[in-house]
Specification:
The protein is α/β, with parallel strands linked by helices. 34% of the residues lie in helices and 19% in strands. It has 6 helices and 8 strands; from the N terminus they run βββαβαβαβααβαβ.
């Protein structure tokens, strides 16, 4: 249960949702909806999703919920290496998120797909660790994405790994609007 005071959270923790199974972003969004239902303010910075997905379409309709999209507008496949411009975009995004986090205007800050951005070498794990270390004590910080580095797992208060046991994409079912995106 969230410890909520009249002005927001009294104690914010660090949560990590990682693994190869589905549900990392969905879990973070579920936490966001729960928090908004209690009057908390939520910010979500999306590091690898720049296309239109359902959660972005609804965010504008919710009070106390802000989503910003950063990063490349393509998926990195088959070992494709990020470009210098991709890395600069993520670096600027981290600077933006740092300002948001330190402003304390939001009770929960979500860094969606940040773990994957680190894995792809778009973001530096040291920069993300500094962000975590500088987190105000009353702000909940949620990091999502497969491949959470051990350094981040170590400093987190809660770590959940999503395990992929069976997935329809493996048998050729295409991603469905409203379900997978």
């Amino acid at each position: 249960m969230l410890a909520i005071s009249r002005k927001g959270l009294t104690k914010g923790l660090v949560q990590v949702y990682t693994g190869h199974g589905r549900g990392k972003t969905t879990s973070a969004l579920g936490q966001a909806l729960r928090a908004i239902g209690h009057g908390l303010r939520v910010y979500m910075g999306c590091f690898l999703k720049k296309s239109s997905v359902g959660e972005f379409n609804v965010a504008n309709k919710l009070e106390n919920f802000v989503i910003e999209q950063f990063g490349p507008s393509r998926f990195f496949q088959n070992g494709e290496q990020p470009k210098e411009s991709d890395m600069q975009t993520i670096k600027k995004a981290l600077q933006r998120v740092r300002k948001i986090l330190l402003s304390e205007k939001f009770d929960i800050v979500i860094l969606d797909e940040i773990n994957e951005a680190i894995d792809l070498k778009l973001a530096d794990v040291g920069s993300v660790l500094k962000l975590i270390e500088g987190k105000p004590p009353n702000v909940e910080l949620i990091l999502t994405g497969r491949g959470a580095p051990p350094e981040i797992v170590k400093v987190a208060d809660l770590v959940t790994e999503m395990l992929n046991i069976k997935h329809p994409l493996a048998v050729g079912v295409k991603a469905r609007k409203g379900i997978e995106y």
